Amino acid sequence: MFERHHARLISPPAAGDRRSVPFDAASLPGLLYSAATSSSSAAGPAVTALHAAGLKLGALPSSLPASNALISAYSNTGHLPSALRAFYLLPSPSTASYTTVLAALSRHGRPHEALSLFSASASAVAPDAELLSCLVSSCRRASALLPARAAHAYGVKNVAVLVFYASAGPALVALYARCGKVSAARRVFSFMDGEDVVSWNAMIGGFASAGRDREAWNCFREMRVRGVRGNGRTAVAVLGACDLDSGRQVHGNMLRIHDGGSKTILWNALMSMYSRIGCVSDAEQVFLEIERKDVVSWNVMIGAFAKNGYGARALELLDMMMQCGMQPDSVTFTAVLMACCHCGLVDEGLQLFKRFVSVVGLIPTMEQCACIVDLLARAGRFLEAMEFIRQMPIRPNAVVWGALLSASRMHHNVEFARIAFEQLVQVEPENAGNFVTMSNIYAKAGMVEDAKRVRMMIDRVELAKPSGQSCVEAL
User: Fold this and answer.
1) Phi-psi group of 344: left, alpha or beta (phi > 0 → left; psi -120 to 50 → alpha; rest → beta)
2) What ranges cover the PPR repeats (predicted)?
3) pTM above threshold 0.85
4) Are the CB atoms for 374 and 401 separated by under 8 Å?
5) Residue 330, burial from CB neighbour count under 10 angstroms (0-12, 13-18, 19+)
6) Model pLDDT for residues 31-90, shown as the tens digit of each residue
7) Under CATH, domain 364-466 is a member of which superfamily?
8) pLDDT tens-digit profile of 281-340?
9) Euclidean distance between the first and the last CA atom of the chain, given in angstroms as a whole number
10) Which residue ranges make up each domain of the chain?
């Protein structure tokens, strides 16, 4: 009924009605674009109404431009299932259609599905520079190196080199840098516009996400030497690679350029940097100075308290967050559960879990379930931990069983360690660390023959525990 009503509202105007905007198949893509980019809360219903009107006119799904615009509009307004249905109804999707739906999947955090969709239909479409750019972006989000290399090889053979690198270059650079392919990243970068800050951001962000802090910081300094002016994304990228001294330099530069009321994402990244290096008071000072805090701001600060052992402060901040009318999300949920784990707040953690699931309505993730298992088992409440595992809505994975094994080692509990170990052998048989841990638990309990048996299992399947490494930086 709603769709039919809106279809009448935007149907072709009556004769002599000059106040109405003409509506036909040619105008449909533009109208869909306008609806999707509107900040109004009615954007979603407007797209649905335009969809209904397009069906009534016969423009959908026969018109590829209109259908592609519809897919994009549904994606932009948060209706990915509707966008996918519109794509699968196309009799002969074009290259632009695949570009649109891949971008939609990637934007909604489903890059693996985007790659699978393209792989299943690769023979039906000839990729252009724009489609290759979307494909490489999906590879970057999925950390899929081999498909990215294939797209790279296809692009340099079938698309003008400068055109290809202008569109797909930043994503390629970020992926290669993240995967430790430094020479490949620099080679791609050499074909890109050295005056374009996007290229530099890709390099810096890629190195930072790979933990290659020195390369990221050197790249940032080289960018400044060349006179390329950074932007907000530059600051966010380089903060992920900063130590305290360099972080304070970036902080000072941010204060000169921005104020606390703008660019909340920058201040969130700054808080995250201070938290990562253990400067909780500095992170809190930044948090207090942010005028327009978003849910990420609260999550970063709660996470900072959690990771640095301030469990009670994290729970206090959660209460403040909800009092301010800010709705917690799954990240908040994980952060407060971690705070309870790190500080042994068992009953508080259990109450929060029940509150988030039953009142807020969040569906617990595997990581959150592992937090509860870890919380109970570390407190020696193994029976409750096992009962929780049995009642989990999702099948427990190695993270859950690993938490139980670790706590069993701490309490020298052979019975529950054996249960966890048997499950871990099934879910990750290649992890030699589990065998070593179980062997040590048996040895600690004086069960020498059992310890030898587990050690022999490592040799039988030719597993090797990775040796530890340490690094000393010479000054």
Assistant:
1) left
2) 196-230, 263-293, 294-328, 329-364
3) no
4) no
5) middle
6) 887 876 765 556 778 888 888 888 888 888 888 888 888 998 898 888 899 999 999 999
7) Tetratricopeptide repeat domain (1.25.40.10)
8) 999 999 998 888 999 999 999 999 999 989 999 999 999 999 998 988 889 999 999 999
9) 73
10) 293-361, 364-466
- Amino acid letter for position 255: L
SS (HEC) of the chain: CHHHHHHHHCCCCCCCCCCCCCCCCCCHHHHHHHHHCCCCCCHHHHHHHHHHHHHHHCCCCCCHHHHHHHHHHHHHCCCHHHHHHHHHCCCCCCHHHHHHHHHHHHHCCCHHHHHHHHHHHHHHCCCCHHHHHHHHHHHHHHCCHHHHHHHHHHHHHHCCHHHHHHHHHHHHHHHHHHCCCHHHHHHHHHCCCCCCHHHHHHHHHHHHHCCCHHHHHHHHHHHHHCCCCCCHHHHHHHHCCCCHHHHHHHHHHHHHHCCCCCCHHHHHHHHHHHHHCCCHHHHHHHHHHCCCCCHHHHHHHHHHHHHCCCHHHHHHHHHHHHHCCCCCCHHHHHHHHHHHHHHCCHHHHHHHHHHHHHHHCCCCCHHHHHHHHHHHHHCCCHHHHHHHHHCCCCCCCHHHHHHHHHHHHHHCCHHHHHHHHHHHHHHCCCCHHHHHHHHHHHHHCCCHHHHHHHHHHHHHCCCCCCCCCCCCCCC
Q: How far is CA 274 from CA 244, 268, 307, 308, in A?
A: 7, 10, 12, 11
Q: What is the number of other CB atoms lying within 10 angstroms of the CB of residue 387?
A: 11
In the chain, the amino acid numbered 210 is: A
